[in-house]
Amino acid sequence: MVAGGALLSNVAWSSLASGSDADPDGPDGFFPPPPERRTLVVLPVLIYDHHRRMEQVSWRGWGGVQTPEAAAKEAEQITKELGELKENADFPVEFFPIQICGHIGEAQNNENLAKADVVLIYGAGGGIEGAQNLGKDVVVFQRWRSGPVYLQYEIVSPRFLRQHKDTLQLQNIQFDDVVTDSLDELEWRLRALCGLKNARNSRILCIGGPDAWSQNAERQKILFDAIHNSWNMDIQTIPYEKLDELLEEARADEKLNAWAQKAAEAYLLLPNTKLSTEKEFVVNCFVLTSVFCKLMKQAECKAITVFGCMGTIIPKARTTACLTLSLLNDAGYLAFCESDFAVVPSGMALAAITGKPVFMNDPTYAHDHIMTLAHCTAPRKMDGENLSPVEIVTHFESDYGAAPKVEFALGQEVTCILPDFLGVRWAGLKAKVADVPFRPICRSQLDVEYAVADELVNEKMPGFHWMMGYGDYTREMGYMLRRVGIQWDNLDKYPKY
Description:
Layout: H1 13-16, E1 40-47, H2 68-88, E2 93-95, E3 99-101, E4 118-123, E5 137-142, H3 152-161, E6 178-180, H4 183-199, E7 203-207, H5 217-231, E8 234-238, H6 240-251, H7 254-268, E9 273-275, H8 279-299, E10 303-306, H9 313-317, H10 322-330, E11 334-337, H11 344-354, E12 359-361, E13 370-375, E14 390-395, E15 400-406, E16 413-419, E17 425-435, E18 444-449, H12 454-460, E19 466-470, H13 474-482, E20 487-490
Parallel strand pairs: 1-2, 1-3, 1-4, 4-5, 5-6, 7-8, 7-10, 9-14, 10-11, 17-20
Antiparallel strand pairs: 12-19, 13-18, 14-15, 16-17, 16-19, 17-18
Helix pairs in contact: 4-11, 4-13, 7-8, 8-10
């Protein structure tokens, strides 16, 4: 097994089946929810200089926070702003009480430093030198118009970032770690760092083992070494021989089968849900989804991928995995077909940033500012809340089983991630849903329209599979990837091509 990780070979259905499935009578609560995203923990630190008047000499630097009283007032304003940010954020974040000090070195004695993921420095004074040595992600916030102007507004570049040189001298704190005035600018950086916390050290269960699309063993080793170095991902495997046993026992479980029948009927009664394949395929998908949920619980993870989903799993599950993976994504899990680890980390990263399902897809050739993206496993809750209309049809290539033909929202802005085969460079771009056709290709399909040149997309596109999510998160992705050593090639940033 090229990726390492544990092998789940001793698990038994009797132990898995002890956990109950969700009540299918709810609107779409068919499966127990996965673990929530881990909360980003932030330590805010206000640095200020307490200057005292001296005669006939320059006795103070720039800035409007230079007394204990001014610092206390500023801390109150910061606390209010961070409280509002937390309340409105679409990601989990907590802020420790703000520390007021004259130099960042004093924060090393703060008992909350070890618990924090991020140190948020308010640079009203000059003493931020040493922040690069805290062993934490650091964001520097400075005021220009939003309050009393900060000293760092003048000197953060020449003194701190460039260290009195002409180019950036710090490795772990860079130009994009400085925010001026804007809480929106601060918020998206914290969203990215929350995503980083949730994407790193994550675990995924592989049905049949890990793979990489059309890559030989040597190139797979390079890829999985890169995944380990960037993400420290724990890849767990369950062999198909064991899955065969579990599915055979599950099909003989009267309680599970009664639940799957009831759940399938409830699902098909959901608004905007049309069935155009055999109902029994849908029932079998619910059986398979329940087995996968229980296996993820056993493996203590919320992500799964299926090797051999184009063939191997079909006779074993008596359906295709397409609808099963869609159901899992809608339930808040991460579920990918083909076990392609060239693209899987990008899906885990984008979902960790957004808290929404993502769509792994096959791209096509760029032309006329349009590309078709398609696969048979799209989630219906692409916005994280609402079920899009769907027609349940067969998987295209096998013309068998159950696969969702999801109606993506026309005009919706999306983020497209284009990972390379070796885990070192991801390209990306913004696009909009231009059409949702029904061509003889993978069932969930959309045409996306983008602003950059077709030649740029075709020449800069690496790898094969893409990952797509609703909304524009290209900034967050680049901010995250810098910290894990992956090059982010944002195609929207190129000059006119």
